[in-house]
Each structure stands twice: as structure tokens, then as C-alpha cells.
Design brief:
Helix content is about 50%, strand content about 20%. It has helices spanning about 1-30, 45-65, 80-90, 105-110, 125-130, 150-160, 180-195, 210-220, 230-235, 235-245, 255-260, 270-285, 305-310; strands at about 35-40, 70-75, 95-100, 120-125, 145, 170-175, 195-205, 220-225, 250, 265, 300-305, 320-325. Helix 6 packs across helix 7 and helix 10 (about 235-245) crosses helix 11 (about 255-260). The longest helix has 30 residues, at about 1-30. The protein starts with a helix and ends with a strand. The relative contact order is 0.14.
């Protein structure tokens, strides 16, 4: 009997040891150098969004190692429906994380999955984009990221500083972009409070930009264009209308300003993309709870102006503005 009990204990101990070592090996294998699949949906190709994507990729490579992350970068060419197609493919491919670059990409990703972590960037207002009431700084769902919105009160103050004598201001934006509409509504309030007469001019897509901008230039002394992806992608068209008409444009971000504006409050899109990448690494590597990760806003901005356009329009630039590079 003693021999039987002893043999049984030996067998049990052997199984226990094997299970322990097997468990250790399994844990080791999961934590070592996992290669993460990251899908990147970028709404359109233009300077600001390109820089944000590059910053995002650089951060993940820095934090995870270049051999531990695989990127699938897809460009939607400015089409919201294509964003949906792209992110649905990421979901089908079981991506570990989706980066959504710009508002329509974020909206498409959020509609496509409630499980895969989504990190957005170049999004002006996450609450507006995702239709979240009483939004503070966390979404409470599988979405977080970085905003590109500089305070609209600061923007209106800078507008007043460089264009104090204009009377009527046209706000030009794409009606299909929820964040652009939000900025337009808020900027209308800010500029009206400063004594300007303000009117909105909206275009549905790139096909009617020229017509809308022409009308706005005919009716207004100056224009304001918020951070708007469709406008950014068509800045040359806007410039070809506004410059000959002698109508200055204050832009919501640096890319639009480079293409058609006289001044803006500039942020670095590479930086907000990089910060989004840092957040993505914390989710993938450290297991951070995305539902509790606060959306982050730009920490710094600079008042900049286009020397060429300001000289052409005889605009006196205050000393507080630096030349746009």
C-alpha cells in the first residue's frame, strides 16, 4: 500500500512540475517580442496627415522595436466610404490596433469594431466626432488619441490681431466633416463677439469648393478656414481664387496656411502623431485600459504668417507672429 501511495505521489508531483514549467514557457512566449499588426487608415494625402502618420509610426518603432510591429498603411483618398472599407478589412485581418488619422477615419473605425483598440489623431473634437454627450476627456469605449485643435478663443484673438480692420468674415468649411462644423459654430461666436459680421459658406465635397470659395470672396473681406481635411487637400484651388481676389485667409492649421493662408496658430502634426503612437504602445505593450485613457490636446502652438501673401496683400504683421517655414 505504501509503495502504491508513494508511486501515486511521484506521478502527481511529476505532472505538477511539468505543468509549472509548461506554464512558465507559455508566459515567456507570450511576452517575448510579439509582432503587433497595426492598421493605419489615413483619410487623405496631405502634409499635415502625412506628418501625423510618420510621427505615429516612429513612436511605435521607438517603443516596441522595428521588428515587433507591422504596419498596414491605407489611404482613403478623401472618401469616407473608403475609410469604412479599409477599417473593415483591418477588423477581418484581426489587427491588434487601428490608427485612425482624421475624423472620418475615426468614425469609420469606431463603427467597425467595439473590441480592437482605436487610436485617433488629427481629430479636432472626439466628443463631436463620436457623438458623445457631455464629453470631457475620455470616451469610455475602445477609442482614444490626440486632438489637433488649438483653442478657438486663441485663434479668434490672433485673427483680430492680424486683421483688425476687416468687417465681414466668411467661414468656409466642408459640411460633411463634423469637427469642421463644430469649429465653424464656435468660431462664429468668437468672431461675432469681437465685432465682426460673420457668415458661413459650406461645400459638400471637393467638387463644389471653387464655386463656394468664389462666392465667399465676393461677399467677404476675409475668410477663416478651420482644420478641414477637404479644404487642406484642395488648398491650391482655394488660393487660386482668394489670392487674385485680394481676400486674406486665416487658417485653422499650418497645412492649410501653407497652401492658401496668411496666418495661423501652428502645431506640429508629427508631434501629435508621435504622442498617439506613444499611447498605442502603452495599450499594446503595457496593457493600458483604453477606455480610461484621456484624449490629449496640443501642448504648444505658435503664431505664424506667410510672408509672401502678407506682402502681396499689404498686411502689416504684428511682431508676435513668426514667419511660416
Amino acid at each position: 500500500m505504501k509503495k502504491i501511495i508513494s508511486l501515486a505521489l511521484t506521478v502527481l508531483l511529476s505532472f505538477a512540475c511539468c505543468a509549472v514549467f509548461a506554464g512558465c514557457g507559455e508566459k515567456d512566449g507570450n511576452s517575448k517580442d510579439k509582432k503587433f499588426k497595426v492598421g493605419i487608415c489615413q483619410l487623405a494625402q496631405h502634409e499635415a496627415l502625412d506628418a501625423a502618420t510618420e510621427g505615429f509610426k516612429a513612436a511605435l518603432v521607438d517603443k516596441l522595436g522595428k521588428d515587433n510591429v507591422e504596419f498596414d498603411l491605407q489611404n482613403a483618398a478623401g472618401d469616407s466610404a473608403t475609410c469604412a472599407t479599409i477599417v473593415n478589412q483591418f477588423v477581418a485581418d484581426s489587427a491588434d490596433l487601428i490608427m485612425a488619422n482624421a475624423t472620418p477615419a475615426l468614425q469609420a473605425a469606431a463603427a467597425a469594431t467595439a473590441d480592437i483598440p482605436i487610436v485617433g489623431t488629427s481629430v479636432s473634437h472626439f466628443g463631436i466626432a463620436l457623438d458623445i454627450d457631455n464629453f470631457t476627456d475620455t470616451t469610455g469605449i475602445n477609442v482614444t488619441g490626440t486632438s489637433d485643435l488649438v483653442s478657438l478663443k486663441d485663434q479668434s484673438a490672433a485673427f483680430k490681431e492680424i486683421l483688425p480692420d476687416v468687417k465681414k468674415v466668411g467661414i468656409v468649411y466642408c459640411s460633411a466633416e463634423a469637427n469642421s462644423k463644430y469649429q465653424a459654430v464656435e468660431m462664429n461666436k468668437e468672431l461675432t463677439a469681437l465685432g465682426y459680421t460673420v457668415k458661413d459658406f459650406t461645400f459638400a465635397d471637393s467638387n463644389d469648393i471653387a464655386t463656394v470659395v468664389t462666392t465667399a470672396c465676393d461677399e467677404c473681406d476675409a475668410l477663416y478656414i478651420p482644420t478641414d481635411n477637404t479644404a487642406a487637400s484642395n488648398a491650391e484651388i482655394i488660393d487660386n481664387i482668394a489670392s487674385p481676389a485680394g481676400v486674406p485667409i486665416f487658417a485653422g492649421e499650418g497645412g492649410i496656411c501653407s497652401g492658401c493662408g496668411i496666418a495661423t496658430l501652428s502645431i506640429k502634426y508629427y508631434d501629435i502623431g508621435y504622442q498617439a503612437g506613444v499611447m498605442a504602445a502603452e495599450i499594446l505593450k503595457d496593457g493600458k485600459d483604453i477606455t480610461k485613457m484621456a484624449v490629449q490636446n496640443p501642448e504648444k502652438f505658435e503664431k505664424v504668417f506667410s510672408k509672401e501673401r502678407c506682402e502681396k496683400l499689404n498686411i502689416k504683421v504684428p511682431d508676435t507672429f513668426s514667419e511660416l517655414k
